# Entry
Amino acid sequence: MGRTLPSITQAFIQEQAAFSRFRRALRREDQLALDDLFASARRHLSAAAYAAHALPMETFLLSMLLEQHKEILRLRQKVDELIGDLDA
Amino acid sequence: MDALTFPLSKRLMVLTAPHAAGGLMLELAARLSGAGELRVLDGGNRFNVYPVARAVRRFTPDLTGALAHIRLSRAFTCYQVLELLQETPADGLPILVIDLLATFYDDNVRLAESRRLLDACIPHLHRLSRFAPVVVSIKLPAPLCADKVVLAEALQSAGGSAWQLEALSAPKTPALWGEED
# Structure
């Protein structure tokens, strides 16, 4: 008796492959940025597996947003620190 | 898909195609789930919910509701296929049977036994098709068990209508400078 549902990693690879033509049409720098986005989604595969969403791509997109927001928070904190240093 | 006109009529339809028309059957399940409940009997472990969910999203925003309309049962041996069909009530719900013959082509099951089981399955398909549309998808046997093609032929002749789908070959791109062979 085999698996009845692809694993989340298989689903991720399939979704990433579905965008291969899109990736190919991008500039090199944009391709690297896109690869970064998928790499950030890959970090949350275990959470995506636990979520067991019927549309896993939505979970992957949210994972990308999550990493983007973490980056924004980190940069905002850095800016606040630099402003504080300038004011001091 | 267009040949399967909606609403489906109450009859037994048999589709023969490579990969047992898996993609087409999932698309059909998605379309039917938007209209109400249906039963899916999976004989070849081909029902992948992710493509179904993507297709459902195209037809309706109520993804969870539509997916809840699908009553899925899987069989992993030909004996389980027969038991599934025996136990399926004729309650008027449309029935999709995906890759019905996959387990009948098993090397470990002799042709005579496969034939006996299929002969027992066919009356149940007819029983169910009196009250609801029944769409059965099958594939032809692999060359290793080519003698079991009689099973596919028996099912095709039992169906009220039978389609044989074939993959289209890719169109040949014309050469830019005339003949290049």
Q: What stands out?
A: DSSP finds five helices and no strands in chain A. Residues 17 and 77 of chain A are 36 Å apart (CA to CA). The longest helix of chain A spans residues 56-87.
